[in-house]
Design goal:
Elements: H1 4-25, H2 28-36, E1 54-57, H3 63-68, E2 79-82, H4 84-89, H5 97-111
The structure holds zinc ion.
Residues 42, 44, 48, 50, 83, 86 line the site of zinc ion.
Length: 116
């Protein structure tokens, strides 16, 4: 049985690798569009006036989610510019898998996979 501390370590390593892959793979154009969604400000909440310096995935950018929602996960519909301090320390916007499924179906029907 995995101890709680060990499980946390696994999650942290996996998460770091995932974030690195995300940053390496995301197109500059997509990143700029995510910042434009909130006029360059952090999208954590309506009151925040920090400058966005990272792109946040509303539905987490996990391997499982990438398999389930291949077009949606890195699409502009799942992204939001955010300040790194808020990304780590504040409740941030999310999306439910049920919503992601609807967006994925729309993207599959309307983009012929061009976004991938
Ligand atoms: Zn913020």
């Amino acid at each position: 049985m995995v101890q709680q501390g060990e499980a946390l370590q696994v999650i942290n390593n996996e998460e770091s690798a995932r974030i690195f892959r995300g940053w390496a793979k995301m197109k500059q154009e997509t990143r700029e569009m995510a910042f434009a969604l909130t006029n360059g400000y952090c999208g954590c909440c309506k009151e925040c006036v920090e400058q966005a310096d990272q792109v946040h995935h509303l539905l987490p950018n996990t391997d499982v989610n990438r398999k389930l929602f291949p077009l949606f996960t890195d699409s502009i519909f799942n992204l939001c510019g955010i300040f790194s301090g808020c990304h780590l320390n504040k409740p941030i916007p999310t999306i439910r898998p049920e919503q992601a499924k609807i967006y994925e179906e729309w993207l599959q029907k309307n983009t012929k996979g061009a976004a991938k």
